[in-house]
């Protein structure tokens, strides 16, 4: 099990019960990856199934959502393959705003 802090910013908190910061335990055998975390978020944290498409497109994070792992762009860290450690901070920030 790995315990991480997950932040939903830029309006994404609306699909997570308006809570921006979550302490998330991912109960899986090591290693636990960001891909595992994303699966956990989709299966246990998004209450309305219609909101899944706001967060996920295909099998990855929707374009327009900046994903950071410990304040570093996840593309530099290996995206879904990054192995999480206790205390990591994963932030999802939507750049898409209504007008």
TrEMBL record:
Highest taxon of source: Eukaryota
Sequence position, cross-link Glycyl lysine isopeptide (Gly-Lys) (interchain with K-? in acceptor proteins): 99
PTM per Swiss-Prot/TrEMBL: C-terminal thiocarboxylation occurs in 2 steps, it is first acyl-adenylated (-COAMP) via the hesA/moeB/thiF part of UBA4, then thiocarboxylated (-COSH) via the rhodanese domain of UBA4.
InterPro entries: Beta-grasp_dom_sf (IPR012675), Mopterin_synth/thiamin_S_b (IPR016155), Urm1 (IPR015221)
Modified residue annotations for 1-thioglycine: 99
Pfam families for the chain: Urm1 (PF09138)
Gene Ontology cellular component terms for the protein in this record: cytosol; nucleus
Keyword terms of this UniProt record: Cytoplasm, Isopeptide bond, Nucleus, tRNA processing, Ubl conjugation pathway
Gene3D superfamilies documented for this protein: 3.10.20.30
Predominant cellular place of this UniProt entry's protein: cytoplasm
CDD domains tied to this protein: Ubl_Urm1 (cd01764)
Gene Ontology BP terms: protein urmylation; tRNA thio-modification; tRNA wobble uridine modification
Pathway annotation: tRNA modification; 5-methoxycarbonylmethyl-2-thiouridine-tRNA biosynthesis
Annotated localization: Cytoplasm; Nucleus
HAMAP family linked to this entry: Urm1
Chain's role: Acts as a sulfur carrier required for 2-thiolation of mcm(5)S(2)U at tRNA wobble positions of cytosolic tRNA(Lys), tRNA(Glu) and tRNA(Gln). Serves as sulfur donor in tRNA 2-thiolation reaction by being thiocarboxylated (-COSH) at its C-terminus by the MOCS3 homolog UBA4. The sulfur is then transferred to tRNA to form 2-thiolation of mcm(5)S(2)U. Prior mcm(5) tRNA modification by the elongator complex is required for 2-thiolation. Also acts as a ubiquitin-like protein (UBL) that is covalently conjugated via an isopeptide bond to lysine residues of target proteins such as AHP1.
Similarity remark: Belongs to the URM1 family.
PANTHER family: RURM1 PROTEIN
Subunit structure: Homodimer; homodimerization may provide an autoprotection to the highly active C-terminal residue before attacking its substrates. Interacts with NCS2 and NCS6. Forms a conjugate with the target protein AHP1.
Protein name according to UniProt: Ubiquitin-related modifier 1
């Amino acid at each position: 099990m790995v315990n991480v802090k997950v932040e939903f910013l830029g309006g994404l908190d609306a699909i997570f019960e308006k809570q921006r910061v979550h302490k998330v335990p991912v109960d899986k055998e090591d290693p636990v990856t960001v891909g595992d975390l994303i699966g956990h978020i989709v299966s246990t944290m998004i209450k309305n199934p219609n909101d899944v498409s706001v967060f996920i497109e295909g099998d990855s994070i929707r374009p327009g959502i900046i994903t950071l792992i410990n304040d570093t762009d996840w593309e530099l860290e290996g995206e879904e393959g990054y192995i999480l450690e206790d205390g990591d901070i994963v932030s999802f920030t939507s750049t898409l705003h209504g007008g």
